[in-house]
Amino acid sequence: MSDETVKVLVRCRPLNKREKDLQCKVVVKMDSSAGLVQLFRPDSDDPPKQFTFDGAYYMDSNTKVIYEELGFPLVQGVLEGYNGTVFAYGQTGCGKSFTMEGIPDPPEHRGMTPRSFEHIFQEVAVRENTKFLVRASYLEIYNEQIRDLLSPTVNTALDLKEHPDKGVYVKGLSQLVVHDAAEVVRLMAKGTANRSVGATAMNADSSRSHSIFTVYVEMAETGADGQEHIRAGKLNLVDLAGS
User: According to the model, what pLDDT value does residue 224 have?
Assistant: First the structure.
């Protein structure tokens, strides 16, 4: 694992049809090799404002590269017993869902989320002397209420609790056992259909809630001493409501 516990990356999407019709101008330049972002005023001699991030991905970037540089080491850490989180933040319509969920074709634009699931179960299939238990949960925070998006009683509000050993948790939140990446994707699609959405000027189906999809990975590895050693990691996929 890298010594850096938190990394911040920025991705810039191309202009959409609405912005092109309005003759909007691009005001962002990026140097991906340096993680540098520049914001400038068109038709102005003012120097650009500069910001540096752990990663900067311009309009021609693809999600495959972002996953290889960010997602792969994070998920690999989860499979070593650490907790990891991918936190997507930005204005509605800026491309959060495109980066996280992606599209199946072309393959390089498949999202961070399906790539993470496939990575986990590929490791489950090949790792020797290790037994795995993989579970998933999906919650929504909307109007200061927590809902279980995988529960048959999805509209029931749940309580946030604190335990001296396991810390903060949601009482009654479903944790469903999953056996392959396709099953996790189906669960996520089921929960996403239950999310609160609403139209905005930028997006007809903007998420109006925050959500956390969590994959819990428990590993029982047989060591050289013949004993089983238990490790557990957790991957949180956080999608904030579009601002």
Answer: 81
Task: For 110-140, write each residue's pLDDT tens digit.
Answer: 999 999 999 999 999 999 889 999 999 999 9
Q: Tokens at residue 181, please?
A: 């990446």
Residue whose C-alpha is closest to residue 116's, from 141, 158, 86, 89: 86
- Return the DSSP state at 48: P
Name, in order, each residue with C-beta under 8 angstroms of 12's C-beta and a sequence gap of 6 or more.
28, 30, 37, 57, 58, 59
For residue 235, the tally of other CB atoms under 10 A from its CB is 26
Q: Are 198 and 143 in contact (CB under 8 A)?
A: no
Above 80 in pLDDT, residue 213? yes
What would the mean pLDDT of 149-155 be, rounded to a whole number? 91
Nearest residue to 7 via CA among 64, 52, 55, 50: 55
23-46 core/surface letters (b: 16 or more CB in 10 A; e: else):
eeeeeeebeeeebebeebeeeeee
Q: Give the pairing of strands 55-57 and 145-148.
A: unpaired
Give the mean pLDDT of the chain: 89
> How many residues belong to the chain?
243
Residue pair 146/160 in contact (Cβ under 8 Å)? The answer is: yes
Residues 180-211 as b or e (16 or more Cβ within 10 Å = b) = ebebbbebbeebbebbebeeeeebeebbbbbb
